[in-house]
Amino acid sequence: MRGRRQQARWRGHLSWGIVDRVSTPQPPAGPDGEDLKSLARSMRLLFELSARTLTENAGPSELARRVIGHLGCELPAVVPVTKRFSLWEHVNLQRGVDAYLAAQPGDRSWFGASGLGHRPREDMLSLISMPAHFGGVRPGAAVYGTAATGPERNAEVVMFGLVTSTAPDGTPVVIGIHNESQYGPNICSLEVLAADPSAGAATRDEIERLMRIHDVFRGQVLSFTASEHHGNELVSFLPRPAVAADDIVLPDGLLEHIEAHIIGVADWSAELLGAGQHLKRGLLLHGPPGTGKTHTVRYLMGRLDSCTVILLTGLSIRFIDQAAALARRLQPSVVVLEDVDLVALDRDYAPGGQPLLFSLLEAMDGVGTDADVTFVLTTNRADVLETALADRPGRIDLAVEIPRPDAPCRERLLRVYARDLRIDADLGPVVAGTEGVTASFVKEMIRRTVLASLRAGDAPPVLRGAYFADVLDEMTGERQALTRSLLGGNPGGRNPARSK
Ligand SMILES: Nc1ncnc2c1ncn2[C@@H]1O[C@H](COP(=O)(O)OP(=O)(O)O)[C@@H](O)[C@H]1O
Ligand SMILES: [Mg+2]
C-alpha cells in the first residue's frame, strides 16, 4: 500500500519537471524552496524504501544455510582458518585434503557456488556471507581443473569448492579449496570454516601433515620455470634420464670419483650422521662446453633413482630459495644448478640486488649441514665462480674438471657413438686429427660420417676412413670456423687423417 502511494508521489515529481518545460513558453524559473523540500522528502523515502527492500530479502543465502546448517551455528559465529600455498602446491593440497576426507566419516561430495556471475571468487567466508537479495549465492557444482602428478600423469584438482567434514575431534567443519590464479594472486588456499577456531586449526594442521606424507614431488625429477602468464614460478615434472655408465667417456676413475662422493654419502647417510658427520654436499663440474658436464649430471640423476632432483637452469636459478626449501623437505635430494656462470653475477633477479650467485650460496647454506641434500653446480667458467667460492668456503666440497677428451677417450667416444655400425677405418688418424676437440664434437663427427656413408649408398652405413677424412676436413675447415667454435673445436686444427 505504502509502496504504491510512494510510487504515485514519485511520478508526480517526474511530471513536475516535464509539465514545467512543456507548458511554459518562457525560460523555466528555477525550483523554489518548496520544490526542493518536496524533492528531498521524496528522495529520503526512496532511500528508505530501498534499504527496507534489502533487509526484508536478506538473510543467509542458500549457500550460507548449507554451511551453517552443517556447522550448527549462526553466520557471524563462523571462523575461517586459512592457509595459502604457492600455486604449484595445489596438487599436494588436493592430495592432503583427499587423504583427510578419506579418514573422516561423511559423504565427501564437493559443492561450489552458483549465481556469482563474473564476480571474482573471493574468500569462502565473504562469499557465503553475501546477503541473499537478488537471488543470492546458491550451492552449485564445484569447479575442477587438472594438475600434473608426474611427467605424463595428471590428476583432477578442485579449483573452487567446499566439502562438509569434521575436525579430528569430530567437530563439524567445512573445508574449502580455492585456486585464485585466474583472477589475481598466484596462490591457492585452503580454508577451514568452523564455529570453533581450534577445530579449524587442527583440521588444517592434519591436512598439512597429510600433504607431506602424500607429497607428489617426492622422488621425482622437477624443474622450476617461470610462468609466462604470471611471472611466478612453476614446477614441472621431467622424465628421469637413463644414461648408461658406458656412454660417459671420461678419464679413467673420474666418474667413479664423482659417484663415490655423491652416492657414497647417500649410501651411508645414517651412519655418517651417527658419527657426527655432515651429509650436505656440493659438487662443482667445470670445463669447456660440450665435454659432458650435463651428460654426467644426467647419469647421476639416473643412478640416484630414489632421490628427488630439482633442476634449475639459467634464469630459473632465481628460484633457488624455493628449490632449496623443497630439497630440504624432500630429502634425500639433489639440486642441480646448470651453467651457473650465465647468471652468477646477475643482480637483476636477486633479492636485495646482490649477485644471484650469493643468493645461491646463501640458499646452500640455509639447507643445514645435516640435510641429505646435494648441490651440483655446472659451469663453463670456473674463473667467474672462483672468487665467490673462495670467499665462502665449504659450499663446494668437490670440484671436478671435465676436460676435453685425450686420445684414448676420443677413441672410446668414436666407438660409443658409432654404436653397432661397422668401422672400416684405421681410427688412429681420426683420433690424432681430433686432438683438442670436445666430446660433443666427436659425436657430431660420427653423425656426419654416417650421413656421408648413407649418401654414398651404403646400406647399412659403414664408417670408412675416406668419409672420416672428408668430415674432418669439413669440420676443421676455415668455412666452419663459427660452427667449430660453437662445438668447442680445436682452433687451427690440422687433419692428420687426410695426410695419411
Ligand atoms: N664425456 C662425454 N662422454 C660421452 N658423450 C659426451 C661426453 N661429453 C659430451 N657428450 C655428448 O655431447 C652432448 C653434449 O654434452 P653436454 O654434457 O651437454 O656438455 P656440457 O659439458 O656443455 O654440459 C651430450 O649430450 C653427449 O651426447
Ligand atoms: Mg651443460
Helix content: 40-55%
How far apart are the termini?
Answer: 115 Å
- Order of strands across the widest beta sheet? 9-8-11-12-13-10-14
* Quaternary structure type: single chain
Give the DSSP E fraction (strand runs of 2 or more residues).
15-25%
The CATH architecture of the largest domain comes to 3-Layer(aba) Sandwich
CATH class of the largest domain: Alpha Beta
User: Which consecutive residue ranges, at least 5 long each, have pLDDT under 50?
Assistant: 1-24
What would the principal axes of the Cα set say about the shape? elongated
User: Number of helical runs?
Assistant: 18
- Which value, in Å, is the CA radius of gyration? 35 Å
Number of strands: 16
Major sheet attributes = 7 strands, mixed
Round the mean pLDDT to the nearest integer and report it.
84
Global structural class:
alpha/beta
SSE layout and pairing:
Elements: H1 2-23, H2 33-57, H3 62-71, E1 79-86, H4 90-103, E2 112-114, H5 124-128, E3 138-140, E4 143-150, E5 153-166, E6 172-179, E7 187-194, H6 197-213, E8 221-226, E9 233-238, H7 254-267, H8 269-274, E10 281-286, H9 293-303, E11 308-313, H10 320-329, E12 333-338, H11 356-366, E13 373-379, H12 382-391, E14 398-401, H13 407-418, E15 422-424, H14 427-433, H15 439-455, E16 462-464, H16 465-476, H17 481-487, H18 496-499
Parallel strand pairs: 8-11, 10-13, 10-14, 11-12, 12-13, 15-16
Antiparallel strand pairs: 1-7, 2-3, 4-5, 5-6, 6-7, 8-9
Helix pairs in contact: 1-2, 4-6, 13-14, 13-15, 15-16
